[in-house]
Amino acid sequence: MEAVTQALLLQADRDDPALGARRAAAGAADPFLPLSAKEAAASEEGRQRTLTTLLEKVEGCRDLLPESPGKYLVYNGDLVEYDADHMAQIQRVHAFLMNDCLLVATALPSRRGAYRYDALYPLDGLAVVNVKDNPPMKDMFKLLMFPESRIFQAENAKIKKEWLEVLEETKRNRALSEKRRLEQEALPRPAPAPPESTNPFDEEEDEEEEEEPSAEEEVVDLSLEWIQELPEDLDVCIAQRDFEGAVDLLDKLNEYLGDKPVSQPVKELRAKVDERVRQLTDVLVFELSPDRSLRGGPRATRRAVSQLIRLGQSTKACELFLKNRAAAVQTAIRQLRIEGATLLYIHKLCHVFFTSLLETAREFETDFAGNNGCYSAFVVWARSSMRMFVDAFSKQVFDSKESLSTAAECVKVAKEHCKQLSEIGLDLTFVIHALLVKDIKGALQSYKDIIIEATKHRNSEEMWRKMNLMTPEALGKLREEMRSCGVGNFDQYTGDDCWVNLSYTVVAFTKQTMAFLEEALKLYFPELHMVLLESLVEIILVAVQHVDYSLRCEQDPEKKAFIRQNASFLYETVLPVVEKRFEEGVGKPAKQLQDLRNASRLMRVNPESTTSVV
């Protein structure tokens, strides 16, 4: 490369011997003396020809670098590129530094001295950072160009120093030339002289116009150093993930230009800044994407959310924050181990989900305190998250055909955790009811069918005999069970020793029905009122119709008296207990149960029939 440069300079001297003599004399006397206009033009022409000669050896850059009179080569050399994360050598490159951009090319192994285009970076968006030596990694520097950064290694410390100095100097010269251009454009241009008029009234109008100053005469001073360096400083802040610093710079600029007129230089500056704002927004959006690490809880998103809000992107910040938290909650639920005991798993599931929902709500309230319009989006998100929770809940509780008592305990746990949200003024109880009503209806009807089938089976084997519990312990246990069912006068149905003056079928029906009612009341909410009431009526009808049918079909007087005693127990003891417990659990009486108790015969059957009709 140096040989080519020298050859071109010698060729210029041969073309104009006088120019060569003057250049030699000027160099001998004082190498820093300015060249004359002709000499400067010749030097400029030589640098452009050198740039053209060098770039002819780079494939693929001819269309990217259109020839312009002001573009020339400043510096070039070989470098080695390293991976920024693992510091592994990637490739050997050749860099061409021009007065307005940096061209990076890779060597072609098949052609010596030839290169292929790799990248082109304008100096306006390029930041140079020195990399401290950390043997064996030394003589390196980093180039920051949003959204990427590249690390290069020079041949030695001297060349590295030259690269750093010439890059900074070229960037500085570029900024100064841009500053001078903006100052020239900002200068008010003299208006063309109006043609002379012979109308005497025009003079009066001109005097009036001169008295009214135009607002356009105000010039916006963009020559301040911090304004000139603003685009580059924004690039550095974005590359170094200093989001707060970048937004502070934007706020400072907006405050400075707030009451200034919009001139052409201001528009150009705004265009450059708007591009950086888009880049900053993209980075912040990526920070909130679910692809990033979800660890750290809701507070980990506060930094990106707050800066997006400062940029006027509240809606986008709200949307991305909620998407991030939805992914985090879903991941936490998926990572739960399904334990052998369903109730244990539901306890863990409710703790994970409702704790995450509560933390998200508090963080949302902190981040979006001044944006009331975003709260409706949070409520919609909470509802969709609740649907995800109910899917996991139902799959474990209802799809696995757990017993009604287990399902009731699990629903009770979920309701208790849901009430915790009232601490922040959020009530989702109605949501969980609406989402669970279908599964709970199915569970109630399924358990009702099981009780009916079991009662029918016992009825088919009914012999209408008194129960003999054999031991006082068994009799005491039965008394306790009936007392827990609400039957307080059970002692009047007990006989001598361990006898009970009731049929086994009626006692078993009483215990099963009361257990069903207790578990169903744990699951109860208004949407389930009719389902529960109809299920109870169907269950009671099976037992009552069987007693009624047996009473009319039995011919033995002793057995008939025993059947009447069982019927009296059902009508006068069991049905009032069921009615009372239902009213306590629901809060209002059930007319259907009252009618059922008051009727002596609920269904007329053919007295001559020998089969039970239900």
Automatic annotation (TrEMBL):
The keyword Membrane is annotated on this UniProt entry: no
Record region (Disordered): 175-218
Record's compositionally biased regions (Acidic residues): 201-218
Main location: other
Compartments it resides in: Cell projection, Growth cone; Cytoplasm, Perinuclear region
Pfam families given in the database record: Exo84_C (PF16528), PH_EXO84 (PF25345)
CDD domains attached to this UniProt entry: PH_RalBD_exo84
Keyword Transport: yes
Key words, A-Z: Exocytosis, Protein transport, Transport
Xref: SUPFAM superfamilies: Cullin repeat-like, PH domain-like
Compositionally biased tracts (Basic and acidic residues): 175-186
Sequence similarity: Belongs to the EXO84 family.
Biological role stated in the UniProt entry: Component of the exocyst complex involved in the docking of exocytic vesicles with fusion sites on the plasma membrane.
Name of the protein in question: Exocyst complex component 8
Organism: Willisornis vidua (Xingu scale-backed antbird)
